[in-house]
Specification:
Helix content: under 10%
Radius of gyration: 14 Å
Shape: elongated
Largest sheet: 7 strands, mixed
Number of strands: 11
Strand content: over 45%
Structural class: mainly beta
Order of helices and strands: EEEEEEEEEEE
Distance between the termini: 40 Å
Number of helices: 0
Amino acid sequence: QVQLVESGGGLVQAGGSLNLSCEASRTIFSLRAMGWYRQAPGKQREFVASITSTSSTNYADSVKGRFTISRDKAKNTAYLQMNNLKPDDTAVYYCNGQYSGFGRNYDYWGQGSQVTVST
């Protein structure tokens, strides 16, 4: 149905930048929104950012002004540009896709990307 493949994670120094990509397979379902979540050791998975099919965006307070979510419809890809990274941003980042079709909604998740920000 839908596969979300992430790339772009890695190790970066505090103050640096990374850009995560999430490429979705083609589907007959309608994309409602895509988002990014993250989970650090010892913490629950938390919301980071989202973007709807009409390009409305939402951000967690902890990343406002530093992270930017965007999408490329032609490439079926969402991005998370992360600037001024802090050690507290260290986590596994998961791409999420919310779709609708045949009268119901569907959620899909990427495999997760490790982002490590050195102190």
